[in-house]
Amino acid sequence: MDRLQRLEENVKSIHQRCANAAQSVGRDATGVQLVAVTKYVDTEWTECVAEAGCHQLGESRPQQLWEKSAIWQGPDVAWHLIGHLQRNKVARTLSIAHLIHAGDSMRLLKEINRHATETSPARVLVEVNISGDSAKTGFSSEELPQALDEVAQLPHLIVCGLMAMASRDRRGDEARSDFSALRELRDLCLPNCPGNVKLDELSMGMSGDFEVAIEEGATIVRVGSAIFEGVV
Ligand SMILES: *Cc1c(COP(=O)(O)O)cnc(C)c1O
Question: What is the pTM of this model?
Answer without folding.
Answer: 0.97
